[in-house]
Amino acid sequence: MSFDINGKVAFVTGANRGIGKAIAASLLQHGATKVYAAVRNLDSAAPLVATYGDRVVPLRFDLAQPETIAEAAQIATDVALVVNNAGVLRNAGPLAGDAIAALQYEIDMNVFGLMRMAQAFAPVLKANGGGAFVQLNSVASLKSFADFATYAASKATAYSITQALREVLGAQGTAVVSVHPGPIATDMANSAGLGEIAESPALVGEGIVMALKDGKFHLFPDTMAKQVGAAYASFATNVVEASLVEG
Q1: Its family (predicted)?
Q2: Count of CA atoms in the C-beta half-sphere (13 A) of 181
Q3: CB 169 within 8 A of CB 125
Q4: Cα-based torsion angle of the residue sequence 155, 151, 76, 214 in order, rounded to the nearest 10 degrees
Q5: Structural domains for the chain
Q6: CA 101 to chain centre
Q7: Angle between helices 18-29 and 202-214 (to 10 degrees)
Q8: 27 and 55 in contact (C-beta within 8 Å)?
Q9: pLDDT tens figures, 54-79
């Protein structure tokens, strides 16, 4: 299912920095008429507004406050594309003293946040002709890493939910893209100790535009991600994206 951002309105969570900011910029550069920049602090979207003017509309949004998700959906009734980029990372291995607390927090933000976003915006997208929904997952959704195992577990769960969303949102004409970046130059990558090998966030923004146009479900935008994606391709095509019937 193909989607062209040109002439459309988008909603991007966590749009004030890192990957979210790069996604917003790419969408605007490829012809989006307006991007709602969903951020915790409205002032943090000022650089985007300075560059793109009134094509950027900051909206208060916080995954930790579900009511802001519902409120944003009531305001942004003209969106055709929703990009759920916002997420959290806690560096916690499975035996760490804070591992359970870390996982609970990451599940709440990365999984329940995704579900709240989908539930809030699915009716909006349907009313506007279907549109598209993009979820930022991670290569960690496919391979766990001991130092941040709880994050990987939360992203694996989010990826599972994203697969289900592809089916249910597809029925209403909404394209779904699951994005699986490797190390990208963000504060999150630095906190995970991956800063030295991280690549530009622009790869994600531009990759999303192309994946939407090409009607692709999976996007592996950077060097590490492409390596993982190449190894995963057969399973993705023949199992995840296939129509399987229980026998």
Answers
A1: Belongs to the short-chain dehydrogenases/reductases (SDR) family.
A2: 27
A3: yes
A4: -40
A5: 9-240 (3.40.50.720)
A6: 23
A7: 50
A8: no
A9: 999 999 999 999 999 999 999 999 99
